[in-house]
Amino acid sequence: MNVAKADKDTLKINPKMCPFGRLTIISRKLGKLFKKHFKKLNVTQSQATILLMLAEMGEILQSDIGKHLELERSTVSRDLVRLIDNGYLNKTASGVSPTISLTKEGIKLAKLVTNEWGKGYKDSFQVLGNEGMNAVATIEQTMKR
Length: 145
What we know:
The protein is mainly alpha-helical. Helices cover 72% and strands 8% of the residues. The chain starts with a helix and ends with a helix.
């Protein structure tokens, strides 16, 4: 394809149809539904997902947190420092990467986060309905291929 032709065709694309832009807006809208619930507990969305993951897994290598949750290393580090400083997480040196686990206070907070997450999920379902929830699942599965 000729570069000039490609540039001309690119200019014809409707930016409102860009999947990245559309998914970003959807993510922000859904994020607000959850954020209002997590705010009550003074945790961010990424901190909440770390707590939920640890509640399910028990413990994990610090280096694996970002991989599992698609979080940047700096976000993981910042969130862990805050959660450890507040007494919610244990950090145990083991090999190359420390192991992270919940403290007793962290378990209590994770239960509260789970409850607030459930409220955010219900809000999301009210907004998206069955069709929208299935569409999100389809997009996720498509991207895993």
